[in-house]
What we know:
Chain A is mainly alpha-helical. Helix content of chain A is 56%, strand content 5%.
Amino acid sequence: MQFDPFVIPFNIGLYFILIYAVARSVIWYMGLSRPDKLRLQRGFFGRAFGHSLKEIFLESLIHRKILKSNLRLGYMHMSLAFGWFLLIFFGTIEADFFGAKHLNAPYKAIFFKFFNPEHGSTGFESLFAFWMDLILAFILSGLILAVIKRFSSKVVGMKKTTKLRLLDKIALISLWLIFPSRLLAESFTGGAYGSGSFLTGSLGTLLASFLPARELAYPFWWLYSLSLGAFFILLPLTRYMHIPTELFLIFARNSGIRTGDQSGAFKEIQTYSCSSCGICIDACQLNFSAGITNIQGVYLLKGLRNHENVHDIAYNCLMCGRCDQQCPVGIELTPIRMISRRAGETPPVKLNILERYFPDIQHVTAIKTNGVATFSWLPKVKPGKAEILYFAGCMSHLTPGIKKSMVNILDASGIKYNFIDANGGACCGRPLMLAGQDKEARELINYNSELIWKSGAKTLVTSCPICYKVFNESYYLNVEVLHHSQFIKMLIEKGNLKLKFMPKTVAYHTPCDLGRGSGVYDEPKEVLSYVAQLQKTACEDENSLCCGGSLGNLKISHSERKSIALDAAKELTKDNPDILATSCPLCKKTFAAITNTRVADIAEIVSEAIVVPSSQEKKSDLTLRRKIPVKVF
Amino acid sequence: MTDMGKFGFTILKERHIDYDANDKSIAEFIAENEPSFRLCIECGCCSATCTTGTFTKFSLRELQIFLKRGENDYVRENISKCMLCGKCTLVCPRGVNTRNVITLAKTAFQKTEKYAV
């Protein structure tokens, strides 16, 4: 017996999905920009290939990152992905080893038991059958978890799970049917022929005792083949497209391709790589502090995949980057959101069936810098020449304590500097970028660049992480950009600042744009540990919380911001520190309004700790005056 | 009004707010999408802290008043001066989401053919 009509649905599905995956990959490859194409070629035939294979094994099959963050959810994903892989892998070996001949068609491995019903009763064969049963049991255990998760997400330790569309549901049901139908088909066959191991064998014997096993086996083989075929054919229209896409993504990422601000094929690949696992929902502060559960990364990507208008979703985000950090697939959600913001309102498109299998790659037009000037009224300033520039930023002008402290520190260290926006300056441009107005932002960037260039500075120090990020990423400057925490650390290490240790405990809050946004984690904490006792908090470094004041979100209300800030402050001040330190004027302003703990910027704390040389101490102090010996003669 | 004119009482043109002729659709669009727009008491904190305000006469308070009156021409000419830095949102005692008010106003102007920049 070498063929049976029931294998046809499976074969159609399998060959369809294989051809489709190749065709789609070619389309994506053609859509990449020229440098990215070269990167991918070099990566594919270079060292990155090995890294990619390793990552595919660890992330796509074992799901290491999900296992690390959530054991039960990770087990669910691993049992389905890795288990299925093992089943196919060992199934192929089994068919090759014990089948009628070597090099069989794929369906022989999948339906091996049907074509060799008596296999697995003796010796080595039974050992192999035991192993195959074990893998099936492993998958089924994950499947049970998945079914329970659909109805109660708390079981796998998730607070929220994603909502599904109709096609997703059909694909999900066909996916759910695959393994139980295999179990029953194999069990009935096993029961009828007296073969099978601990799972299929015992279940088969049990079923055969009161049911006509030989007759019932055949329909279940049909069901098994049909559910496989249906799943493969529906796969491109559903979230399960992430299975083939993720492989492409891993190769592309390991070849050094990044989203940047390009809306092209790579953004598209990431959009389809999302498995809708829902980890970004759990990571999102808008979810657990403000109760907004429909705007997270997974929904943005889903909206993009379905060509919906994602305008409101794109703008309702703190842009804190917590989801980027925790995404197990490593999708760059924040850059994708920025692109969606720039795209503006996109009317929803209804696609026909062919267009849904091969959707267009969305292109957002590049920024045009020449147009009607918006900020032509900005004054033409001639900055003084200096090696070091200090740019306080808008927000620091709103919290003058930081500005004054920085001036104090710079003066105390005896450095020659130029306070470039002492009397107020133009904004850095990032707030406009966050609002999707890149053209206007570019004007401000050009204005500030000219100012910095004219001053002939080598170093630019800024007090605001928002400015720091945009100076680093979007300005084309020939200067070293430092955040004031980095600069103060440098001053301390060079010995320009004499500081005393203050007997105070400090908890440090990492601002989003400085930490996850720019990767500056250690310098502020090192500076703090020079002057005070630094406490550990539950949300260190990558896990830091957003203060809620973020300029990234244009949609949330004042009260929602407040509840985010309250939650974050509560978490940070758990161990009752004397000072809640931060290195961002915006975070300082937000926290100061809602907590009783003193909130201070790093610059302010350091400024307090400066040791004033005795010659400069105030002579008017009474105690000091008494110490001066009175000359009698 | 015309009767009063007989006795030498007139209304100066620049002090004349004609609610019948003014177009309040922009303000309504903003209020619909950003309800906190209605909370504004025109205290002027936003104008006091404004980055753009250090260089120009730009005042968000003024724009809010004009928007609510429906005198849109002045707003349309000036609204894009805003750099969206967000200081006004932080100082607002009423919790008005001013950055969204400005972005919505811009969107509304773009949407209405009459005002499109």
